[in-house]
Amino acid sequence: MNIYFSCSITGGRTEEATYQAIVKQLEDDGHYVPTAHLSWPDVMLLEDVVDPVEIFTRDMAWVRDCDAVVAEVSSPSHGVGYEIAYALSLGKPVLCCHKTGKRVSKIITGNTSPGFTVTKYETDAEAVSAVRDFTRVLSENHHNQ
User: Fold this and answer.
1) Contacts (Cβ under 8 Å, ≥6 apart) of 47
2) Whole-model pTM above 0.85?
3) DSSP codes of every residue in 43-89
4) How far apart are CA 8 and CA 51, in angstroms?
5) Are the CB atoms for 69 and 95 separated by under 8 Å?
6) Cα 127 from Cα 97, distance rounded (Å)
7) Predicted confidence (pLDDT) per residue in 20-68, tens digit
8) What is the second-level CATH architecture of the domain 3-143?
């Protein structure tokens, strides 16, 4: 499947190791992740040289083309929230995961949209497991249609 991975870039990178673990597992499981570079330590250097309009256009196209969105939401991010809302408006399944104990917007935790899931994790392994469960269910549903 084509999975759009969303995470904070300018709002904080404290969960970067988790971002990397999630992306690695998605790719190891055979999923295409057009935003894999967002998990890289040098992502800000890479994105700083790209025009904002180009990033917006590119990322919105990636969301439109994806099968689902996986968002790590432990660090507040305007961009991540925008991508989640856009994906939901298109009827895309969305998984939001966040570290236990992190304050997450009630707009996220209280969202009851169809296909929207929020889960907490304590370790990278738990985050990866939640993502694998999410993509496994999506794959099963996709094959049963």
Assistant:
1) 9, 55
2) yes
3) HHHHHHTS-HHHHHHHHHHHHHH-SEEEEE-SS--HHHHHHHHHHHH
4) 18
5) yes
6) 7
7) 999 999 999 999 999 998 887 776 666 666 789 999 999 999 999 999 9
8) 3-Layer(aba) Sandwich (3.40)
